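=== RUN LOG ===
request id: a7f3
mode: sequence -> structure
chains: 1
length: 376
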Amino acid sequence: MFEFDLTRTDGQARAATLTLPHGTVQTPAFMPVGTLGAVRGLHPHEVERAGAQIILGNTYHLHLRPGEEVVAALGGLHRFTTWGKPMLTDSGGFQVFSLETLRTISEQGVEFTSHVDGSARFLSPEKAMEIEWALGADIAMAFDHVVPGGASRELAEEGMERSLRWLERCRRRHSELAADGATQTLWPIVQGGTYQDLRLRSLEGTLGLGPWTGIAIGGLSVGEPKPVMHRVLDELGPALPRDRPRYLMGVGFPEDLVEGIARGVDLFDCVAATRNGRHGSAWTMGGRVNIRKTTNRMDDQPLDPGCDCDTCSRFSRGYLRHLFVAEEMLGLRLVSLHNIRFLVRIGEQARSAILENRFSSWRTEWMSRYLQSETV
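=== RESULT ===
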């Protein structure tokens, strides 16, 4: 149920098939984020029509409400959300560490104050595994210590070493929960900030605790400059196992997907597609469109003439602008849907280019068109 078939490579870029209990994922692929068990504002059928093969759920938020016991009692996250394809749950580590003044870190775990009701909570590696097991996604992520972008070497090393210690505890507890049948797999997260030797030490320690069916790269896109992220991927890539999927966590702007794929990344996720969409910001190959602008008032063209999403296939920019000006919620949904499709199509187009041994030229052309465009 947990297989990875590397079909072809073109430079460092990879085209593969990931097999999970609820279906297969053709990579490279973007994974829309369903924080609270829903991709914000969108019906599961719409997300599926946009080409999404796998979506995420957020352990921290689902633990706070409705609670993992509710989700489990109602059949697990797949049945609860009616999403029948693969799902991944993060561990809640990023959200907990983002609370800053509302949490206290110890070797045992993290004490934090719920942003929902102010109640005192505690999340440990073992607890995270228990929550993720109850949620029942195909892939559960390990509980790790996330440090901010630009963290000092001392802080990055502390987070990396603690993440390895916590990974061993995650592995042990997950193995206990899965003893009666492996319906879920656990993926580790490589940490180490922007320091090459720490990243390589993290990877070495992670592989020593395996075997794993996939490996995630965490702690990037958290404030460091993009060239620094690219350097970390360049340095880490050659050391990563070739025969397992690579997941770059929290990265999902269009140009970041293309650059990540070029460096051997298989899976991506980010909330930016729907977050930008709700504010009227759409990604297109003609530039980033602010649909609220007056220049769109009489425009009868689609957001992106080259896009095949349900939004671009049916609605004009003028209509979308009207929806936003009138504060009609359909506008937020339609631009979010387009942005999801835009990112999914990048994965599809890159995969075709890799299979046809033309990824380098496709990447150059795509980046040239996208980056030279101005916001309109």
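=== NOTES ===
The chain has a mean pLDDT of 95.
The longest strand covers residues 3-10.
=== END ===
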